[in-house]
Design brief:
mainly alpha
Length: 191
């Protein structure tokens, strides 16, 4: 009688991390079905969900598969304490941001620098994501460790549409960052 190959869960999880890292999305459902841990971590604490965002964005279907398998959308990396939502907002992946928020990702979770997903979206000029996160309860006046809010980050990077969106959400315009700069000063400096 032949015995089947016995594969350890750790091997499956390592394979899942590698499949995501290499963009082999067709392998992911099989690995999850075989028992790979959707919350496994690499040496930096990056989960498959986080890696999918960091490496250029997995398809919305892959994100849904990982979430359905139990991936925790708020699981942070070790060093920067970033989540998949931070990375998806930074990269501008609208459909994925929507999926993560639907999976109850915390919209105001701060990373090690104090940034939220909305702040990343504001800094990068992703107005639709800023609007979506505010609609889901993100604080337009949340501050990072430099006392910058999303409006500071958008203004200093010249993202006028994001500044308008934040003002429409009643973001405070006269707050000074840790260097004493207001959003208006930063906008003038950026132009």
């Amino acid at each position: 009688r032949r015995r089947g190959l016995k594969i350890h869960r750790d091997d499956l999880s390592f394979s899942l991390l590698e499949a995501v890292r290499l963009g082999k999305e067709d392998c992911i459902p099989s690995l999850l079905a075989a028992g790979a841990d959707p919350n496994c971590e690499d040496e930096d604490g990056k989960t498959p969900l986080f890696l999918a965002m960091e490496k250029g964005g997995a398809s919305p279907q892959t994100v849904k598969e990982l979430l359905k398998a139990g991936a925790k959308p708020d699981k942070p990396t070790y060093y920067m304490q970033q989540t998949a939502l931070h990375m998806a907002a930074k990269k501008g992946f609208q459909v994925v941001v929507k999926s993560l928020v639907s999976a109850r990702a915390k919209v105001d979770k701060h990373d090690a620098s104090g940034n939220t997903a909305m702040m990343y979206a504001a800094r990068e000029g992703h107005v639709t994501i800023v609007r979506m996160l505010i609609r889901e309860g993100a604080d337009p006046d949340a501050k990072n460790l430099q006392n910058e809010a999303g409006i500071h980050l958008a203004a200093k990077n010249g993202h006028v549409a994001v500044v308008h969106e934040l003002l429409a959400a009643n973001a405070y315009l006269n707050e000074r960052d840790s260097r004493g700069h207001t959003p208006l000063f930063l906008a003038c400096k950026a132009s």
